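Folds abound. A case:
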Amino acid sequence: MGKVKTIVNFGVIGCGYWGPNLIRNFRALPDGRVTKMCDRSNDRLEHMRSLYPEVDIANDCEDLIGDPEIDAIAIATPVHTHYELALRSLQAGKHTFIEKPMATTPEQCMELTKLAYEKSLVLMVGHTFLYSPVVRKIKEIIDSGDIGDVLYISSRRLNLGLLQQDINVAWDLAPHDISIIVYLLDEIPASVNCQGKAHIDKAIEEVTSMTLNFDNGGFATIQSSWLDPNKVREMIIVGSKKMIVYNDIEPMEKIRIYDKRVEAPPHYDSYEAFHYSYHYGDMHAPWIQQTEP
């Protein structure tokens, strides 16, 4: 007998900014099907039903959590609701996907992780860029040793908006950069420092600067802003041999590898004999097949 193909039934809670992207992608899976979508806004639900008339709609998330036909639930709601919704989803025996950030405290994240482990359920956070062909290519280049040892990483994620009401810009934007940096270096930061300023809403910082230090000597900075005139999505990885510039705004050449470095003399007898040398070589942009993460 042939192998029976298993179809995963998804329920999506939240049809605002990001939920529709999840619904579209889940529907495109050959072994996935969206059976219900939920939102408090009737206007949003009617719009989504006009796009996907075969998918049931609901205003109450319990209609999804309590549905025995639903195998997995995706949560794309405001951050302050993540923990409670994920907890109820896991307690109901559903595999659970949460948009970043996972919850509002480390204790909440640890509790959800422990519960998923005890129930043998998948608990996943939507760190989209870890599945980007571009980021995976950068990881491949670093692991190959082509750029040498990573000396530091500098990341800028800037834009005019979208201002949030329940989290600051570091919580909103920096998780992307943190997840990429941890993935590229394959190490968790030993210490993190973050400073920010609030201008529009005095309780919510719109501009932050973050520093990550790693035990192996690695170092990273992350600048996040909702108050910049231009959209910037740039990460620079400086190696001991070469440097990589990752510009996610570029339509084609998202990665550029620069054969540039600073070299110190191997030995010298006096201060006068000491000279740094600057190596300038070619730049090339590897071709990458663009697919949606």
Notes: The domain at 129-284 is CATH 3.30.360.10 (Dihydrodipicolinate Reductase; domain 2). Residues 169-185 form the longest helix (17 residues). The first strand starts at residue 8 and ends at 13. The radius of gyration is 23 Å.
